[in-house]
Every structure is written in structure tokens, then in C-alpha cells.
């Protein structure tokens, strides 16, 4: 029934899976005995090993990594005397305002370099500064209570004279309003180029519980940073920072800008290494698209009871201190994991040899005997067993492959050589009988000596069979495809096969055929070797001996039982076996089914 068949198929699948778990499959290799190839192989393996070691230690693949955590504190120093006024740190640094503009970027400081100052402002109504949306011709152009995004205050709805030629909307604001002209040039505080800043940077690598400060052990407080002479000094001259960022301080001081001070902590935390910061500088704002940076702030005071203020539009340079880095420390786990992934690079050596051999196949060396033998050993073609047949001729030292379907007799069909191995075929006669004879050497010495005598004469017999004998050539009535004169007539193309490629003696007349294939003693010993309790008096014994004789012939002439299903026995040999061990009624179903 169908359920039972399904259960049997499932059981077979489970059994196959269990067998697969208890097996190990190893790849097959082709060994080339060559001193040159061996030296090249060793050299390539050594080169790959050296490259792997270099990559591992140069890029730190043997170490565990951690990102840096840091905090930054800055202190700007410098005094300037300009136009009768002293400018100290409190006047030109606005750290809190810079932090508010940067929102969360607290590692910044601002140094003012230029200034537009609007004095004596008080809250009242006055004309707006004449920009495009503020210019008017009548009160209808001004809307009471409205405010433009660029406006300095709230419109009152009146259009008033800004000067003798221009009218603008009146606004309620701090008046007089700020001028929108360009800042002074040269910059007021261009001398701030010589100011210095002290940067204190504490870092930590949490995974390794390692902390560090960017101060050297013996800090000289009078030092200033220089990339060559003092690379670890934490005191920086502002002019030198812009010089390293490839900027001109005098030009940048007019409208300001943004400069990045980068501190890179790329630390190897193993005991034999040091951990020191590396400084670099670059400009962050775009010089072509609205360059510059400024901050507005006001100072309020009272004059005659009125609240007044002075508005400052401070242009300057904002310095952003950017800290980044990676800490690395030796880790056995990381080393094993990265080495395991890099071992696959040794496959490049095999790939290099394969590419070289493939190139040899495509050039003039492809016809060399070495390349041909290599291709035969390297590549094994798996064909559908239902579409091919294997043939062995007594006068040729190789097995021949013939593809189906056949358009002519098997004897004359187009074929190709599968394998050439004379040693395999010359000694194939000792395959089955030798195993049984070895077990009976002491009990039957006469049979053993006779078997050795037969094997000793095999070479002579083979030599004789390969010589064409004109006196014993095929008779005129013989089939056109028969070369030995012993084949039987048949209409089937796949059964039209002779034991020889050229005319000569039939293999069935050789002593080796009689001893190895037809000998009843040999076949019975082989049968008992397979089944020690076989009944040799059984009425079906001839059928067993006949089938065993077929196998003996295949093992003798083809050298292996791997080709048993598709190996074709010549017509003369097949009928010689059938006549020796006939089937009752001579009702044979053909060599494929039999």
C-alpha cells in the first residue's frame, strides 16, 4: 500500500542520514613529483605566511579594541592694546555664548578678532535698516504688528524717512538699529594671532580601565606646540594653528571662521608601547559659501533712569576640539579568530597553480604528455550509466567508452579511451581466484602450483593474442563486425561486439580464459569464497556459475567491478560461457537483463 511505501522511503532516508553522520569525506589530490613545483609551492606558502603575519601585527588584528571617552578644558591667554583700550581674556573670549550656539558641542571656545559696535541703544520707535523688504513708499507697504525674518523689530504701520533718499517702515526696537555693513578691515584684533590656548584633555578606555592626560610627565609651562620640536606640548599659539590648517590669520580674522583641533588617541596599550596624542588642524566652514562666524551680545546699563545697551557684533574664530581614537590591547581570542579567517589565504597558492595549469592548457604546452596525464588524473567525468557502455579489446591495453544511442554495431561505433593502465589489466587474473587460492594453499598444493603455472603463461598468451594470424582469419560467412570468427549473429547493435579490434585468435581459445572464466573449480572456489555455505549440488548451480563467470570476465578484462553495470561482454565470450553453463531451454533475455 502507499502508506507502507512512504514509511519505507522515510526509513531509508533516515538510515542514509545516520550513515552520513558516521562518515568522513576527504578531498582527492593529484600529486606532481617535481622539484621545481615543490620549491615554488614552499616559496608561495612562505610568502603568504609572511603577509598574514605582517597584516596581523601592522593592523592590530591580534588586539582587542575600545573607543575613547574624553573631556576637554581650555584656557586662552593673551592681552592686546588697541585704540587706547586693553583687550584681555574677558573681553575677547565668549565660551558660554559659543557653547549655546554649538548646543551640545561643549568642547569649543571662541576668540573675537573683529567687531561692529552699536552704542546707546534704547527701546523706542525708529526707521528700519533699509533692506529689500523694509523699503516702502507709503504706510500701505507697512503692516502694523508684523515682523520680517531679517527685521530688527516689530512694524508700527508707518513709512518714515531713513535718510534724505530712502524711506523704510518704522519699527519698535532697540534704536538706533544695527548697521548691516561689512566689518572693519583689517580686523581690530588681528594681534590675537599671538594669543595662546592651553588644552587639557582627559581620556579613558573603559574596557581596559586605562586613563590618560595629554600632559607629558615633565611639562615645561613655557613651551608652545610645534609639530617637529614640541609635538606633545598642550599649549598652542593661535597663529600656528591656522598656519597648520593652511589658512591666513589676517584674512580669516576679518569675518571669522571655524577651525577644528583634532586630538587622535591611537593607543597601543601593551606594556612595550606608549600612548601619546597626535594633533592636527583643519578649517571646517566653507570659504566660498558664506564664510565667517560671528556672535551678537549686548551690555546693558541705565542712563538717567532709562535702560540702555551697547550691541556688539563680534566676529571671530571658533575652535572646536575634536577628540577621537582607539585603544588596543593583546587578546588571544582576537588573534585566534583573525588568524582563522586569514588561513584561507593559503588557498591562493592552490589557485595560482590551477591558473598556471589552466594557462598551460590554452597555450602550446597543452599537447605535452605531462598536461595530458595531469588532465586525466585531475578530472573524472561522471556520465549517466544509462547512456554509456564500456568495451575492452584483447589487443588494446585500455578501456573504451561508447555513448548511446548506437547507429551502427558496437564494434564499429565511435569511441573514446577512458583509461590506459597495463599493470591493472595484466594482473587482473589474480583478482578473485588468488584470494581463494591463498586460503587453500596448504590443503591443495597441486591446485596452487597449477594456478601459478597458468599465471606465469599469461604474458605469453597475451602476446600471442595480439599477433594477427592470417591462417585463422574469419571465415567468409562470419559477421562483418567479428574479427575472431567465434561471434554469433544478432540484430541488436549493442550486442554486436567482438573480443578483438583486429583479426586474430579469439580470447576464448586462450588458456587464461579457460582457467579464469570457464574453470568450474575456479568459479566454485569463488562462489564458496563469497558464501562458505553455498550448496554446490543445487539444481540452480549452473545459473550461479554462469553469472559468476560473467563477473570473472569483467574483473579480468576491466580490472574493477565499478564498470560491471555498463561493461559489455563480447558476443564470442558471452556465448562460450552460455554453452559451458547453459540455461534450461536456452531462453536468454539478453546480456543487459541477464
From TrEMBL:
Residue ranges, compositional bias (Basic and acidic residues): 437-466
Stored Gene3D superfamilies: atp-gated p2x4 ion channel (1.10.287.940), atp-gated p2x4 ion channel domain (2.60.490.10)
Transmembrane annotation, as ranges: 42-61
A GO MF label: ATP binding
Region spans: Disordered: 435-466
Protein's membrane topology: Multi-pass membrane protein
Alphabetical list of PANTHER family matching this protein: P2X PURINOCEPTOR (PTHR10125), P2X PURINOCEPTOR 7 (PTHR10125:SF13)
Function: Receptor for ATP that acts as a ligand-gated ion channel.
Protein's name according to its UniProt entry: P2X purinoceptor
Organism: Pluvianellus socialis (Magellanic plover)
Amino acid at each position: 500500500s502507499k502508506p507502507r511505501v512512504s514509511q519505507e522511503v522515510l526509513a531509508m532516508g533516515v538510515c542514509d542520514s545516520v550513515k552520513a553522520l558516521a562518515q568522513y569525506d576527504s578531498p582527492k589530490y593529484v600529486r606532481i613529483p617535481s622539484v621545481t613545483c615543490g620549491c615554488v609551492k614552499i616559496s608561495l606558502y612562505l610568502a603568504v605566511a609572511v603577509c598574514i603575519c605582517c597584516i596581523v601585527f601592522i593592523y592590530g588584528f591580534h588586539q582587542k579594541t575600545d573607543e575613547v571617552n574624553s573631556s576637554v578644558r581650555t584656557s586662552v591667554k593673551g592681552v592686546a592694546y588697541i585704540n587706547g583700550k586693553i583687550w584681555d581674556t574677558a573681553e575677547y573670549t565668549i565660551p558660554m555664548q559659543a557653547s549655546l550656539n554649538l548646543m551640545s558641542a561643549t568642547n569649543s571656545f571662541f576668540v573675537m578678532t573683529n567687531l561692529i559696535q552699536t552704542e546707546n541703544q534704547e527701546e523706542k520707535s525708529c526707521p528700519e535698516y533699509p533692506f529689500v523688504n523694509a523699503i516702502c513708499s507709503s504706510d500701505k507697504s507697512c503692516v502694523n504688528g508684523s515682523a520680517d525674518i531679517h527685521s530688527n523689530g516689530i512694524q508700527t504701520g508707518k513709512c518714515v524717512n531713513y535718510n534724505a533718499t530712502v524711506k523704510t517702515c518704522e519699527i519698535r526696537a532697540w534704536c538706533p538699529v544695527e548697521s548691516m555693513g561689512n566689518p572693519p578691515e583689517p580686523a581690530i584684533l588681528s594681534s590675537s594671532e599671538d594669543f595662546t590656548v592651553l588644552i587639557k584633555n582627559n581620556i579613558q578606555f573603559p574596557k581596559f580601565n586605562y586613563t590618560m592626560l595629554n600632559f607629558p610627565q615633565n611639562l615645561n609651562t613655557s613651551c608652545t606646540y610645534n609639530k617637529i620640536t614640541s609635538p606633545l606640548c598642550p599649549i598652542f599659539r593661535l597663529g600656528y594653528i591656522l598656519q597648520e590648517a593652511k589658512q591666513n590669520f589676517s584674512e580669516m580674522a576679518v569675518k571669522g571662521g571655524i577651525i577644528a583641533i583634532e586630538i587622535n588617541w591611537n593607543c597601543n596599550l601593551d606594556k612595550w608601547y606608549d600612548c601619546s596624542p597626535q594633533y592636527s588642524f583643519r578649517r571646517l566652514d566653507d570659504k566660498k559659501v558664506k564664510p565667517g562666524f560671528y556672535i551678537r551680545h549686548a551690555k546693558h546699563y541705565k542712563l538717567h533712569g532709562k535702560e540702555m545697551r551697547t550691541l556688539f557684533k563680534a566676529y571671530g574664530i571658533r575652535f572646536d576640539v575634536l577628540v577621537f581614537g582607539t585603544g588596543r590591547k593583546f587578546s588571544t581570542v582576537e588573534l585566534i579568530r583573525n588568524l582563522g579567517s586569514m588561513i584561507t589565504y593559503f588557498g591562493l597558492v592552490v589557485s595560482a597553480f590551477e591558473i598556471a595549469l589552466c594557462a598551460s592548457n590554452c597555450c602550446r604546452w597543452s599537447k605535452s604528455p605531462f598536461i595530458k596525464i595531469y588532465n586525466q588524473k585531475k578530472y573524472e567525468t561522471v556520465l549517466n550509466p544509462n547512456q554509456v557502455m564500456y568495451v575492452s579489446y584483447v589487443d588494446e591495453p585500455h578501456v573504451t567508452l561508447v555513448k548511446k544511442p548506437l547507429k551502427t554495431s558496437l564494434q564499429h561505433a565511435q569511441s573514446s579511451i577512458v583509461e590506459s593502465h597495463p599493470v591493472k589489466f595484466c594482473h587482473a587474473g589474480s583478482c578473485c581466484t588468488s584470494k581463494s587460492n591463498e586460503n587453500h594453499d596448504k590443503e591443495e598444493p597441486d591446485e596452487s602450483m597449477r594456478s601459478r603455472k597458468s599465471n606465469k603463461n599469461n604474458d605469453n598468451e597475451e602476446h600471442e593474442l595480439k599477433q594477427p594470424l592470417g591462417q585463422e582469419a574469419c571465415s567468409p560467412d562470419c559477421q562483418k563486425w567479428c574479427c575472431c570468427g567465434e561471434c554469433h549473429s544478432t540484430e541488436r547493435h549493442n550486442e554486436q561486439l567482438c573480443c578483438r579490434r583486429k583479426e586474430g585468435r579469439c580470447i576464448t581459445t586462450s588458456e587464461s580464459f579457460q582457467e579464469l572464466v570457464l574453470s568450474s573449480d575456479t568459479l566454485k572456489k569463488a562462489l564458496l569464497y563469497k558464501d562458505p555455505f553455498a550448496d554446490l549440488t543445487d539444481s540452480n548451480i549452473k545459473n550461479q556459475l554462469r553469472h559468476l563467470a560473467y563477473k570473472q570476465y569483467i574483473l579480468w578484462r576491466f580490472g574493477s567491478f565499478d564498470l560491471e553495470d555498463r561493461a559489455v561482454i563480447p558476443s564470442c565470450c558471452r556465448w562460450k560461457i552460455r554453452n559451458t553453463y547453459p540455461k534450461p531451454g536456452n531462453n536468454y533475455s539478453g546480456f543487459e537483463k541477464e
